[in-house]
DNA sequence: ACAAGTATGTTGTTTTTACAACGCAAAGGA
DNA sequence: TCCTTTGCGTTGTAAAAACAACATACTTGT
């Protein structure tokens, strides 16, 4: 677990906490590490899970398949991202989505009760972590609203523009990689893959952007 | 402001706090009350606002109009609901949406710094309120994911079924009122009003449900 | 190197949605 | 009461998306 201290110190959960203090807190928070192979499920829709989780390594998708096999991707999780915070409350009910490893991954689990309960003097940074947690949930909240903004666009083209503009802004660059292949991007934006593919090529031919695999450049 | 203490004691923010203690906290949290006429804007997209707000009376919509006048409704706010919590952090940036009164309303503003900072002994329930706040943001988070679920449905009919089923479950009844008229529901689900209207009538004719104005009964 | 599987683009057809226009009924104000 | 506004349903047409099917290039494992 110690090898991930540098990653942890860059996470939003431990913002402002020094590496050595993080190491001390891992015990206090009963941190547990688990590894997953590409394609493995980390969590399944319908389960109860009240831990707070950090992705130490790899990449995950938070998604859901309906009865007919239509997949809907809610978000992607990258190394250093937190997930599951919204289910920390004991009465938060069953998970609405699956969490799947799209690369070989390592996840650290924290007991949410331990995180939320103000503990003894040992962890002096504890209250900072609680506030970090609140800010992180707030930020995810804003991200979800932003995604609602993409999904509320009328046409496939508008959805693409809305999403790609956002990614460009997020990376502070007109050139960036997205965490999806075509099918996944279609599942993320809730559109048909082939229609989206055509639309992307049309936009490229009109000179709005260029791309190769999952690398995009906006013009 | 005191007349709203009964409403406040039923809010998620003050869950577990007695009415008299709430009264004491109002000063500590620098609570301010403002009234809005139907149609007035409470907040505008692009503004900075880091207060936490509670709707004491009336009804609001959180929505956004794009350049071409297409409206998208993110959520409705009912009496006793909190809003703006996602922007409590000082670095949370500008608001993404407008907040509009759809009825004459009364809003209570709390200084978020005061809420988050653990204050002097005076407010012994303060830490409970902070935890309530975290749980409330978490719950909104789950609600937003649920809304993403509605929006990701392929057809207007599926969106309606997804949304109405949810409302039915939320009210624990197959008979319930929704906080939208037809145009607003269409803006909420991001579909065309007239197409949605036809679809609703078709579903009624097939015996799936019945409705009158904003009252629905699922069969 | 080869075979099998995966990812992407392309095309044509069918289905669905968006849009525009209108009629009617109910609500609200003068 | 009358007039205006608003909300809802309906219809026909145009536009867009979904769907299915296939060609090609690229990966991966043996």
Observed structural traits:
alpha+beta; globular; 4-stranded antiparallel sheet; Jelly Rolls; homodimer; 219 residues; 24% strand; 2 domains; 11 strands; DNA-binding; Arc Repressor Mutant, subunit A
Q: Mind explaining what this structure looks like?
A:
Two copies of one chain form a homodimer. The first copy, chain A, has 219 residues and is an alpha+beta fold. Chain A folds into two domains: 2-145, Jelly Rolls (Sandwich), CATH 2.60.120.10; 153-218, Winged helix-like DNA-binding domain superfamily/Winged helix DNA-binding domain (Arc Repressor Mutant, subunit A, Orthogonal Bundle), CATH 1.10.10.10. Helix content of chain A is 37%, strand content 24%. Chain A contains seven helices and eleven strands. The first copy, chain A, has helices spanning 5-9, 19-28, 112-116, 126-151, 156-170, 182-189, 193-205, and strands at residues 32-36, 41-43, 52-57, 59-65, 71-78, 82-83, 98-101, 105-110, 175-177, 209-212, 215-218. In chain A, the strands form three sheets. In chain A, strands 1-8-3-6 form a four-stranded antiparallel sheet. The first copy, chain A, has a four-stranded antiparallel sheet with strand order 2-7-4-5. Chain A has a three-stranded antiparallel sheet with strand order 9-11-10. In chain A, α4 (126-151) packs antiparallel against α5 (156-170). Chain A is globular, with a radius of gyration of 19 Å. The mean pLDDT of chain A is 91. Chains A and B meet through α4 of A and α4 of B. Chain A binds a DNA duplex (30 and 30 nucleotides) through residues 154-156, 181-183, 191-195, 197-198, 200-201, 213.
